[in-house]
Design a protein that fits this description.
Layout: H1 3-14, H2 25-37, E1 40-41, H3 42-49, H4 53-65, E2 69-73, E3 81-85
Antiparallel strand pairs: 1-3, 2-3
Helix pairs in contact: 1-2, 2-4, 3-4
Length: 88
Amino acid sequence: MSTSETVTSGASHEGGWEPVRELPPSAKLVAKVLEYNGSLTQSQLAEETLLPPRTVRYALSRLEDVGVVESRFSFADARKRIYSLTIE
């Protein structure tokens, strides 16, 4: 099953995935990884998705623009941000 099919199937019961539908595949992949793994840093997302850090940064900014991802500073390392999905 492709990432877009997975995202679409999640939209049928919740509706929260609707803003993600028109985003690039990298943003959809990052959203799904956050859904399965919970909160992650940008470097952890790059490792999990096998995407370049620059692509992960772009995907996160697009997801934040549509309001489905939020970030907060890490208590362990204030230089890092922790990203989490705001939809179920």
